[in-house]
Specification:
about 100 residues; alpha+beta; Glutaredoxin
């Protein structure tokens, strides 16, 4: 089965992050897409500093989808879901065995 991760980086001190969690992230989590594993990351957690630097995230809220796609700032739920679906499809194609061109 294909699994992707969606990492949500938030600043607990800003209303933007709290609203984004309520309006976009929570509804998507509740959809319980079986291919998606969510990780909610407080930017003030010292254990997460390396990850934030690795992804070069400099504004919040931010979503990192499948360690490939980074969405910074407010993005509508519909747009986020479309990117998640694209990444699920990308993983499915990536994991398919190569078809031989030989008869």
């Amino acid at each position: 089965m294909v699994r992707i991760t969606v990492e949500y980086f938030f600043n607990p001190n800003t209303p933007e992050s709290k609203n984004y969690m309520k309006i976009v992230v929570n509804p998507l989590i509740r959809e319980q897409m079986k291919e998606v594993e969510w990780e909610i990351i407080n930017i003030y957690d010292p254990k997460q500093k390396k990850k934030i630097e690795e992804y070069k995230i400099n504004a919040f809220p931010a979503l990192v989808i499948n360690k490939r796609r980074i969405l910074i700032g407010y993005k509508p739920q519909k747009e986020v879901k479309a990117v998640i679906q694209e990444e699920i499809e990308h993983e499915k194609k990536r994991r398919q065995p190569l078809k031989s061109s030989k008869p």
